[in-house]
Design brief:
This protein is an alpha/beta fold. Helix content is 38%, strand content 23%. It contains 7 helices and 9 strands. The strands form 2 sheets. Strands 1, 4, 5, 6, 7, 8 and 9 form a 7-stranded mixed sheet that branches. A two-stranded antiparallel sheet has the order 2-3. A hairpin with a 2-residue loop joins strand 2 and strand 3. 42% of the residues are buried. The chain binds zinc ion (ZN).
Length: 201
Amino acid sequence: MRAPAIILATLLTTARAARAEQVDVIVQAGHQGRPQSCIVLRVKACNLGTGLGSALERNWTPIVADAAAAELRRVGLRVGRRPADWSGHDRARAAVFLHFDGSAPACHSGASVGFPPSTTPAFVHAWEDRYRARFPFRFAGENITTNESRYYGFRKVDTPGRSLLIEFGEMTCAPQERWMAPRLHALGLDVARFIEAALRS
Ligand SMILES: [Zn+2]
């Protein structure tokens, strides 16, 4: 697939600007910018994410990530907002990688989390406790796939035990999709409050 030159130029500028930043929080919107960014940064495993009908994961994650980033900045934290692919390496006090799950057959998944061995249980449980209280569907578990437990984003950001991939729910499951669709901004605020609390403790 050929991407228009203007998009490639914008992605290159973004990628260069993102090099090796030290911030408080990295917020990544899963799959954002793909497939174009895979061409620019030569990403072979160009996972475009899931979706249901015209609702695409890669259009949803930026809404959640932007809401989280805006709230974190509002309370005075330095935020690095990342798309699916970026060059360089970041250092941060916390990093979240935001996704929605897909399943075939549908409705066999739900919310889940992924994290590397260095992430502390307290950080994981702080999010799980918060989100279980809100999400009215199944919590599918921790590191339920290698895409979660060995997520490439974990290697792109160094944090002191606070790296977490969040799957908010299963987009391919219509009841879950219907619950999440009007709450994307609210999910971002939830993520921001979770991070804020974790960095204060
Ligand atoms: Zn995803």
